[in-house]
Prior knowledge:
This protein is an alpha/beta fold.
Amino acid sequence: MKKGIVISGIALVFGLAALMSCSSSSSSGTKTFPKGFLWGASTAAEQSEGGITNNDWYIWEQMGKTPPVDLADNFYNLYAQDFTNAQAMHLNAFRLTFEWSRIVPNKPANIYAPLTSGDVDMAEVQHYKDVVASLAAHGLAPVVTLVHWTVPQWVDNPAAYNPTTNTFTDSSLGGWTNTQTAYAFSQYAAFMAQQFSTTVKYWITENEPLPDTLSGYIMGVFPPGFSNLSDLTAVTMPNSASVVTVVKNMIMGHALAYHAIHAVEPHAMVSIAENSIFASAISGNTASAAAAKAFDHAYNLAYLDAATTGVFDNGLTGTTNTETHPEWAHTLDYIGVNYYNNDYVVPAPAGFLKPINALPCDSTIGAFISLSSIGCPAQNPSETQGLTGILVEYAQRYHLPMLITENGYGDADPTGLGRAKYIVQNILAVKNAIKQGADMLGYMYWTMDYDYEWTSGYAQNFGLFTVDDFTRCTVPACGGWSPTTTTDFTRTPIQPAVDVFSAIAAANDITPTIMNQYGQ
């Protein structure tokens, strides 16, 4: 196998332009991004670490529901190499996951009690301590996610679900249908905060709780695999749960974890990573305008409203019965924003997503219903304009700092030019939001290396770096191919994207040279 590369002499031309820009900006005091702005890359345990065999996704894979993961891009063993590459790119932050199923492999005797040494795999805790120490050695601030969609099998074992009795045949909790999951999660969060209080400042309790709900509890394509496309308030799942129940349990889990982390470290910065779709109305279409408003409330705002005010809208429409949970209020120190889509929104046909009654014109929905049949235009509006729009909306509604925790390009891009333009134009969108009053903490690109992309397997490459043997992935899900110990995991930078992002991070701004070449 080839040795892993270290970026050297990245982008001499761009680097010089960056230094010139940095020098002139410093003297004039006109630099757009604040001092300490976080420039980073994001990863997730299941998608990058590989080798995880005791979470719900592994069971899902064994059931034949998704392509195999195997070693992913082997981040578990090659993290120092990735951090060296990130440091060479002038990045100062890195997002990763502490995999819950590694830390707490078996169900604790009392999920309401603090974790004991018998509950925890301390070798895995030490592994993550080594990872965080390596981050510090490379000048990278850790942004830690506690649950990035996957949960331990004792929390959710989709193979043990009995649809006839609507119960689980083992002792698993049933995922987020069960309130007990929220309490178990908070004990895990408390333990990890105790272990990392002096080394981790930025915490993300849950990654994309709404897409997690959409994929696992509405469309049934992720574990636990429940399908509830018709009515989000109907009690159809185990533990007498509806989709709304699942969302509430996730909010409860976040709030409990927030308080647990702050009990250990009052100055910690704790949030969620909110997948945000800018909901656009079709021009001149009043029905689309109403649908866009309804979708924006249910998808982008309902969770954030509950975590800032403590008020939850049970109907997800903004006009129905609400309930107040004071313990949920003020449990966001910042808002983590994952952003990929600016979608037109149209009224849902009968039988879809009551009571929201709205559907985004998104390829995810297109897998279930013809988008043209429900009035979707052939093309959605500008993604970058939507990023500015969602950041400004959040800034005006919540008055909290924000961190772009994911934003990435996964389209086919043999030259790398599209990825470079994507990075520049989305960072420009962040810059425009700052000009309109958004308080931004940083921008983290998804993702560092070619990785596993859930039901797409290895068919999409979002990485700043490709992985040499992954280039064989030319068909959907790579024909079932997955990386093993014989795979060549050499990281190779995708140019000019890596050079461009490196120069922006070095200059703490988009230099005129880069703007002229990639900003249009």
